[in-house]
Design goal:
Layout (H helix, E strand, L loop, with lengths): L2 H23 L5 H19 L2 H10 L4 H58 L23
Length: about 150
């Protein structure tokens, strides 16, 4: 590998690590996600520092063309990241569903309370108070807070 290419790869790794750390400090990315990206930066920096390492690893695994091994590892890492992100999205969607149900129950309680208050005001002028048709609902599960 030429020296210019090694320095370019090294510079790319340093810039990428700076971007990841800056995003982490600005809370644009959480610590769990940043670990995967920082590990990829370490891999890039190791590749720049030891370019023969990929050739040796390809020989051990039995791959004839070392860049193919690099693309295979890159693809596997990206698939793992996508799987992890999908798991996070599913968890967040479930929490959003629970939260929206919780808010809907509170809105229903507020509406029933407002009707009772209006009914109590009507009884002051001679009308009987209206009773709520629905029994009080139990408090929803607080799992979404955890």
């Amino acid at each position: 590998m030429q020296d210019v290419l090694r320095w370019f790869i090294l510079l790319c790794g340093i810039v990428f690590s700076y971007i990841i750390i800056r995003l982490l400090l600005k809370h644009k990315i959480n610590a769990r996600n940043s670990v995967a990206w920082l590990l990829s930066v370490v891999a890039v920096l190791l590749l720049a520092a030891f370019p023969g390492g990929l050739d040796r690893l390809a020989n051990v695994v039995g791959v004839q063309y070392p860049p193919t091994l690099m693309f295979l590892f890159s693809t596997l890492v990206l698939l793992l990241i996508v799987l992890y992100q999908s798991m996070q999205i599913s968890t967040v969607n479930e929490k959003i569903r629970q939260l929206s149900q919780h808010v809907a129950l509170h809105d229903l309680d507020n509406d029933l309370l407002a009707r009772e208050v209006r009914g109590a005001g009507a009884s002051a002028v001679g009308k009987p108070p209206q009773k709520s048709v629905n029994p009080p609902t139990p408090a929803p599960s607080q799992e979404w807070l955890q």
